[in-house]
Amino acid sequence: MSLPVQLDIEGMTCASCATRVEKALNKVDGVEASVNYATEQATILGEASPEILIQAIENAGYHAVVHSSTPSAADDPMVALRNRLLISASMTLPVMVLSMVPAFQFLYWQWVVFALAVPVATWGAWPFHRAAAINARHGVATMDTLISVGVGAALGWSLYALFFGGAGMPGMTMTLELFGQPGEGSNEIYLEVAAAVTTFMLLGRYLEHRAKRDAGAALRALMESGATEASVLRDGVEKLLPLAMVKPGDVMVVRPGERIPTDGEILEGSAAIDTSMMTGESVPVDVSVGDSVLGGTINTSGFLNVRATRVGDDTELARMATLVERAQTGKSDAQRLADRISAVFVPIVITIAIVTFVVWMAIDGSVTIAFQAAVATLIIACPCALGLATPTALLVGTGRGAQLGLLISGPEVLEHSRSLDTIVLDKTGTLTTGRMKALAVHSSSGVSASDVLGIAAAIEAGSEHPLARAIVDHARSERVPEIEATGFVAEVGFGARAQVAGVVAAVGRPAWLESEGFDLAPELGHTLEELHRSGNTVVGVGSGTQILGLIQIADTLKESSTEAIQKLKDLGLTVIMATGDHESVARAIAESVGIEHSEAGLTPEGKAALVARLQAEGHQVAMVGDGINDAPALATAHLGIAMGTGTDAAMSAGDLTITRGDLMGVVDGIRLARRTLGTIRGNLFWAFAYNVAAIPLAVTAALNPVVAGLAMAFSSVFVVTNSLRLRSFRPTR
User: Fold this and answer.
1) Which of 62, 127, 440, 666 is the most exposed place for a label (fewest CB within 10 A)?
2) Is 426 part of the annotated catalytic residue set?
3) Sequence-ordered strand ranges (E) for 558-619
4) 3-class SS at 55?
């Protein structure tokens, strides 16, 4: 299957339009398409060419172009919509004043109103009329159908009253009535209704478009934050190249204050890197030779030579954008329900409007009241807010998450976050740093800790084993003089031997040292038992015939782990730790962070089995991990949460990725997911409640169509504005 094709869709005016475009694309052979009304984009998987896809959209009555990250201002639909709104509003204002205030009504005022209102109800309302015509051609009715029919009915009746009734006679007067009043229908005109409803709808749609644009600002800012050029060393000469020309293996020069062009590894130099745009962390990270850096982050100090490792769509920044866009395209269960309701709602509303007109004519005989009630029903029942409820909240929520280093993969994450009651945490790399650190050196009588550490560092100097690196790093930090070791021999799984200062020395498991003929002093024996009970790793150091000392090594806890565990409990979650480590180590780590239940000695399959067992017991389970060994459990869980500092396998299996690798990010990710879901449900409740409450008012002639139009327009604006409140989400720390 080819790479996804993204198209920008023009002409969509409601969620029903998006559904129609989606159906048209999915009818193309070998194509799987998803259309997002909030972003006005289509994402298509398949072998069909963009030309074929665009033609399918054109046949459905809409326009499409291949997505561009840098659209021109001239092509901005907001500009055309704003101009249409301003012109319509300038003509509607005198129409409203003349129609509402009898004191301003001169001899032939109604004909001036006619001249001003007709362009508004035709040209100004053209987007709605056009969409309604497209809908009719396909045998369907949408929100635009209601608006077009309502405006058209008001205009048509007014024309009849002016040319064939008594409304065109000199001296005719009228006022704006919020409630229907019995009268002679042929003497009433509704030009103010046609003009005002059109203008209010245009205003609502403009505000809606602007709000949607603001909603996507987070993702756009993320993508636009990357570098566009790179200083690359080619044949020893520094060249400024477009980012698209950078290849893996190229050496890039990054000066202080510049963005790192693409993901890479530092070959030369050291610096403090501002990673806030990727991880949400405000404190710069110190990096040096051998460290990995991400494209888009900022070099705040130091001169760097960076070898490009991942470019283009393989970079972390591109991956983040893909995850966020995928999330914004999806639909929650609640939105699917809203879509089903919207599909049958419009025909029902049209039927209700017709029945309303007939019933009022039968009861009262007043064309005025019957007409007002029918038109108000058509206009106020338009369910635009239903179509905006989910996508706008997803747009804002996932965009805000990306800013904070919380990548939500889809709307199903939101649904699962609400029902979670249990969370399983991996230990290494999740609760702990995953980096071994020497905590203390315990020496026998008459031997200094410096001597013990110096012998151990001399033997381990050439090893890449995590325990060896911890010993060497500790010796350097303590400024222990370097000693040369010769004849290095490694015993895999046990330790290593060498000649140090002409004496046979060894570093490794204390039991192995004893088996090799090194004696353990009694005072060290007691210390060894205590260290084993504490869950720490213990390395013995022997020289000659004696074990000179013990080095206490442990995987250090992340600073935020203890606080994060309490925050997870505050969210109503039962916390379980799952690790492949020994029982004593697991118990010690769990107790130190406040976890009551831990499972030790688990294989990758064992972790997945633990998650499956909890699910079988009726629990809704989240799994947090960072390594390839966590991938099966992440995929098994209802909600897989991957730490972004881990492996690609873990992140691929996860539903929620925490790019900053901090457990507090898990807390924030669940909080944001739940808040976004709450916003969606609030939006849908408002949209449903509005229509349920408004239709009876309109049917009973309790609303003038002008008021109905204003209320309907701002119901959509309310939903979008409510979604925008997600931009204020703040992390726990």
Assistant:
1) 440
2) yes
3) 574-578, 597-599
4) helix
**What are the structural domains, with CATH classification, of the chain?**
5-75 (3.30.70.100), 78-216+325-394+680-727 (no CATH), 247-310 (2.70.150.10), 407-432+558-666 (3.40.50.1000), 433-556 (3.40.1110.10)
Q: At what angle do helices 109-119 and 143-163 cross, to 10 degrees?
A: 150
pLDDT at 181 exceeding the cut of 80: no
Cβ(373)–Cβ(627) below 8 Å? no
Tokens of 298: 């900022």
pTM here is 0.60
Q: What pLDDT sits at residue 647?
A: 42
DSSP reduced 3-state for 607 = helix
Higher pLDDT: 508 or 493? It is 508
Which of 144, 214, 426, 581 does the annotation list as catalytic? Answer: 426
Q: What is the pLDDT of residues 524-535, one digit of tens each?
A: 888 888 887 776
Averaged over 545-568, what is the pLDDT? 88
Pairing of strands 229-234, 237-242: antiparallel
pLDDT of 325 reads: 59
Span 1-25, pLDDT tens digits = 455 788 888 877 766 677 788 888 9
Question: How is 270-312 classified by DSSP, letter by letter?
Answer: -EEEE-HHHH---SPEEE-TT-EE-TT-EE-SS-EEEEEEE-G
Distances 264 to 252, 275, 286, 288 between C-alpha atoms, Å? 9, 14, 15, 12
**Whole-number pLDDT of residue 288:** 87
**Rg (alpha carbons) of the chain, rounded to whole number:** 35
Q: Which two tokens stand for residue 406?
A: 């919380």
